[in-house]
Amino acid sequence: MKSKTSRAPRRANGRSDAKSNGPSNGRSTDMELATRERYARASKKVETNLCCAPVSYSRELLENIPAKVRNVDYGCGDPTRWAQAGDTVIDLGSGSGKHCYMLAQIVGKRGRVIGVDFNPPMLKLARAALPQFAKTTGLENVEFRRGRIQDLALDLDALEKWLGRRPVKSAAQLSNLEAEMARLRRAQPLIKDDSADLIVSNCVLNLARDEDKPDLFREMFRVLRRGGRCVISDIVSDEPVPSHLKADPELWSGCISGAMTETGFLKAFEDAGFHAVEILSRDERAWQTISGIEFRSMTVRAYKGKQGPCMEQNQAVIYRGPWKKVVDDDGHTLLRGERMAVCEKTFNIMQSTPYRDQVSAIEPLKPVKGKAKPFDCSRTDLRHPRESKGLHYKATKKDPTATACDPSTGCC
Asked: Among 94, 200, 237, 412, which is most exposed with the fewest C-beta within 10 angstroms?
């Protein structure tokens, strides 16, 4: 196993102590420029002060990745371990491509990996390794695309080709550019709707401007298939980051001052429509502490698929515990050991990861005849056993697979 070493906490420099009301549009531009330039340099020479929380990766996967790619890694977690064979995976902020090449080996020939990054030098580094990786592994299931993670519909390589033929030199021509951007998003999206099984990202979401973060989470939701999931590793803070720290380009580009709070990170998934939002890992020890605010790595998984009509099929679930009761992302309260009435959609969700190990599913003895009626999911109701068995069910029988009891064996 290969792991990074911890680095001593940094303090904000003198500039960051200046009073500020938060990044203005001009400051946001400065942050983007600082981030772009810093990561461009980091593609050529390892930057020790970027996001480098200690991480251990599979040695077996790393051995098949060219050293130039393997050594350029600015992550704080390992979301790759949650991929499965056959997955179509999108890596947001793919950088050198290291995680994409790891993922390619996990998903195999039936799977596919798409790295998305905005920085041309990083993309050049990642793409240059494709021939060697294919020769070493026999896999040609990786590609890298240029785009913004908060706008996964716009193909920036395609846009730059258009600009090369039609440079914008006047305000009148600006409308042509805007029209072409809209056409590309509609007709040639960088990432199509409902096309991915898994989205991963490693210490990148915090680099997006605060005003762009809601769009970023909505875009992740858009491109995932129903039942798909995100696994995101990022740096989060234990309390809100004040504006004077957010205004520091070094702290922002270093994956610090753009961090969301721990609770804000989880809420962003909920607001975008995800369910089963789960903390897979949270570092107990802070990676850095600045002005009393702790910054640490956290990995979160969230699923797409709770949207849709609620129909009555006389189905129920029993929550096994250990909590006395729990509430899901649709507002259903599940009482421990009780048969809870649920709609068909919720019933199916509860039989999939990550719920299925916590509930028992109860199907009706006979399917509902005719067209199912709408189910009011705003209420919490118990399901009487007779609703599932039928009001006139009077059978008397025993399990045909059960063996006769022999007291001499101690079975009774």
From this structure: 412
